[in-house]
Amino acid sequence: DGGITQSPKYLFRKEGQNVTLSCEQNLNHDAMYWYRQDPGQGLRLIYYSQIVNDFQKGDIAEGYSVSREKKESFPLTVTSAQKNPTAFYLCASSDVGANEKLFFGSGTQLSVL
Amino acid sequence: RKEVEQDPGPFNVPEGATVAFNCTYSNSASQSFFWYRQDCRKEPKLLMSVYSSGNEDGRFTAQLNRASQYISLLIRDSKLSDSATYLCVVIGDYGQNFVFGPGTRLSVLP
């Protein structure tokens, strides 16, 4: 089945630790995104990438890093510089063009120990 | 002013009711519009795209008013399974800039 796979579903981070969230898609989409969602809030864009080896900061990129070495993969690292990392993280992908729709993975809940 | 704003909700309606949500956007150059549905602690899923001429999918009707910069979603004959948060999404005037509204929560009561 075509889709977006995020792992792990739940992740715990210790103080000062970097953690990496995985996102893989087999939809052959060019664009991939990472969003953060806090309880009762909308989605905020962290980073996005429209092509391999290129990515742009979103609205809340500080404390996060990404890479796009392969079309299928867009991992997100939450660094120790992100002081309030507890949130629901959603990866998404889309084709690039007019009226293209966004498809989401099932999300990763990150909590701080 | 936020780029995309929605009715604050929550909306609590009885089964069978008709309910309407509104969404306004600030960027007049926005080109594409969508409604997504999100269940608690799940990923958003596309409900429907919104076209200039308006469009209908079963019990759901979406309308776009470019002059007033708002989008609406009408749900007729509400079902218990319609209970969710409804997200308005607007693509801005560059690249793949999907901008999400904060969502409107709907609870359909038996």
Topology:
The complex is a heterodimer of chains A (113) and B (110).
Chain A: E1 4-7, E2 10-13, E3 19-25, E4 31-37, E5 43-51, E6 54-57, E7 64-66, E8 76-78, E9 87-94, E10 103-104, E11 108-112
Parallel strand pairs in A: 2-11
Antiparallel strand pairs in A: 1-3, 3-8, 4-5, 4-9, 5-6, 7-8, 9-10, 9-11
Chain B: E1 4-6, E2 11-14, E3 19-25, E4 32-38, E5 45-50, E6 55-57, E7 60-65, E8 70-75, E9 84-91, E10 98-100, E11 104-109
Parallel strand pairs in B: 2-11
Antiparallel strand pairs in B: 1-3, 3-8, 4-5, 4-9, 6-7, 7-8, 9-10, 9-11
Overview of the structural elements:
The complex is a heterodimer of chains A (about 110) and B (about 110). Chain A is mostly beta strands and about 110 residues long. In chain A, about 0% of the residues lie in helices and about 50% in strands. Chain A is built from no helices and 11 strands. Chain A is globular, with a radius of gyration of 13 Å. The model of chain A has no long low-confidence stretch (mean pLDDT about 90). By secondary structure, chain B is an all-beta fold. In chain B, the strands form 2 sheets. In chain B, strands 2, 4, 5, 9, 10 and 11 form a 6-stranded mixed beta sheet that branches. The interface between A and B is medium-sized, with 25 and 21 residues.
